[in-house]
Amino acid sequence: MSDYDADILIWSERQSALLRRLASGERINDQVDWENVIEEIESVGTQQRHAVESLLGQALRHMLKADAWPQSRDAPIWRADAIDFRAQAANRFTPSMRQRIDLARIYRQALRSIPETMDGQPPLPLPDVCPMTLDDLLSDGPHVGEADG
Fold this sequence. Notes:
This protein is mostly helical. It has a domain at 47-138: Uncharcterised protein PF01724 (Malate Synthase G, Chain: A, Domain 4, Up-down Bundle), CATH 1.20.1220.
């Protein structure tokens, strides 16, 4: 079993030290775990994109609940949570993610997660298609259903 399988932290520290030595001109090419280094580097961007997508999904779920049950005592909390999730997504977002994030899919998933009733009340009608753009979600302005100010 390699360090990669046993302890990813130790593996990453060793591999980064080897890469630094390699970058300085030392001939240690055969000691670097190239296959796993490449996979880990590839996964970094994917993990960041997944984090942004997850945060956007959480924001949309909270926004949808607040729009579906605006009179609920929890609606202000849902709106506040949505703002927080949107801010976190914006902080992690990078421009290259724009063409890789499928907002329509994220919205459909959020819509499917809305319960049929909340405190015995059915939801108000919700749009079948996301009423916001990615830029809207990543901005710090109000969403479509919120009042300004």
